[in-house]
């Protein structure tokens, strides 16, 4: 932290930041300039599986093609003491001068319409406390955080009171990161190109406090091609100008190498996409969903639970079959 600016990273970023950044005020200090690349978690689920199964014929490919790539770590009720869990993860990244990627996934009524990843905090007050501890645990260390996948696309089975609660929680969460984690870039999840039209998503982002966030995230845990997401992201960013500002966006490319076949829950024939990097049609392309971790009891992951690592699915994603 607080290290000399990496000229190489800043020069690269200047070349690849899309036009949607013009006129978008920076909400926080730049975590890219404080680190020397993205953090690779040695305890990710594919890394842990590969280490525990060295004799498995799939282990080498999973280790090289997935486990050794920078990916996000997800935090929710399973994380236990959230302050301790986040603090240890960010601290480990900071110790090696790398930028950690984190996903917060604990809203009450999470995945209300999809149903495969239900759960979350028990109340609005419980979530507010949880996310406050999350932000405080990062503190002044650099980080990238994506807030609450599916949260702004998932309105169809919610009443207006529930929607109001949700956007209120997200808006307060953004404020927590602004005040307690000044070197964090926080992105609100904005669904994917096949879910909500750009104008509607921009309106929802604005209600959820996007003006105070670094930007928004697309395609989390989905399969749409990078180009489709880039086009959609630019449309959303343009629609945000109706509210007096615009924002950059990041794209989850962890599983979009073969694009989408119209299914979202463990579809067959998908492939890993472009590894985490700056630019590429967005502010950053990020592996936010871990390849091989199940979407739920469905598709090629039948019989599994959401988040469970499936080595055969991971192996097939490397080769796209």
Describe the structure.
This protein has helices at 7-16, 45-52, 59-67, 82-95, 124-138, 160-180, 198-207, 226-240, 311-319, and strands at 73-75, 101-104, 143-147, 184-189, 215-218, 249-252, 277-278, 284-286. The protein is of the alpha/beta class and 321 residues long. It has one domain: TIM Barrel. Strands 1-2-3-4-5-6-8-7 form an 8-stranded mixed sheet. α5 links the parallel β2 (101-104) and β3. α2 packs antiparallel against α3, α4 (82-95) packs parallel to α5 (124-138) and α5 runs parallel beside α6 (160-180). Residues 2-27 have low confidence and may be disordered.
Would you spell out the secondary-structure blueprint of this structure?
Blueprint: H1 7-16, H2 45-52, H3 59-67, E1 73-75, H4 82-95, E2 101-104, H5 124-138, E3 143-147, H6 160-180, E4 184-189, H7 198-207, E5 215-218, H8 226-240, E6 249-252, E7 277-278, E8 284-286, H9 311-319
Parallel strand pairs: 1-2, 2-3, 3-4, 4-5, 5-6, 6-8
Antiparallel strand pairs: 7-8
Helix pairs in contact: 2-3, 3-9, 4-5, 5-6, 7-8
Report a brief summary of the structure.
By secondary structure, this protein is α/β, with parallel strands linked by helices. It has a single domain (7-319), classed as Alpha-Beta Barrel (TIM Barrel), CATH 3.20.20.
């Amino acid at each position: 932290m607080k290290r000399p600016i990496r000229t190489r990273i800043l020069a690269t970023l200047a070349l690849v930041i899309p036009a949607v950044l013009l006129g978008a005020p920076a909400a926080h200090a730049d975590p890219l300039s404080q680190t020397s690349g993205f953090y690779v978690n040695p305890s990710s689920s594919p890394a842990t599986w590969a280490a525990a199964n060295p004799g498995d014929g799939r282990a080498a490919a999973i280790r090289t093609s997935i486990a050794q790539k920078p990916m996000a770590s997800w935090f929710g009720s399973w994380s236990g003491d959230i302050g301790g869990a986040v603090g240890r993860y960010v601290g480990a990244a900071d110790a090696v001068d790398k930028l950690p990627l984190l996903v917060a996934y604990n809203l009450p009524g999470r995945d209300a319409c999809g149903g495969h990843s239900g759960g979350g905090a028990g109340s609005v007050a419980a979530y507010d406390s949880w996310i406050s501890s999350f932000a405080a645990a990062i503190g002044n260390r650099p980080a990238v955080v994506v807030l609450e996948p599916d949260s702004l696309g998932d309105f169809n089975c919610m009443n207006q009171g529930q929607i109001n609660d949700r956007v209120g929680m997200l808006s307060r969460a953004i404020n927590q990161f602004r005040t307690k984690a000044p070197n964090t870039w926080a992105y609100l999840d904005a669904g994917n190109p096949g879910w909500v039209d750009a104008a509607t998503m921009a309106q929802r982002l604005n209600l959820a406090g996007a003006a105070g966030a670094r930007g928004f995230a697309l395609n989390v845990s989905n399969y749409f091609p990078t180009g489709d997401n880039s086009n959609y992201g630019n449309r959303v960013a343009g629609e945000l100008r109706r509210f007096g500002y615009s924002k950059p966006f990041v794209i989850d490319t962890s599983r979009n190498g073969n694009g989408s076949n119209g299914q979202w829950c463990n579809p067959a024939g998908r492939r890993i996409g472009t590894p985490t990097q700056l630019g590429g049609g967005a502010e950053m392309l990020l592996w936010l969903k871990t390849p091989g971790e199940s979407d739920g009891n469905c598709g090629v992951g039948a019989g599994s639970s959401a988040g469970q690592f499936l080595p055969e699915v991971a192996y097939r994603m490397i080769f796209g079959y």
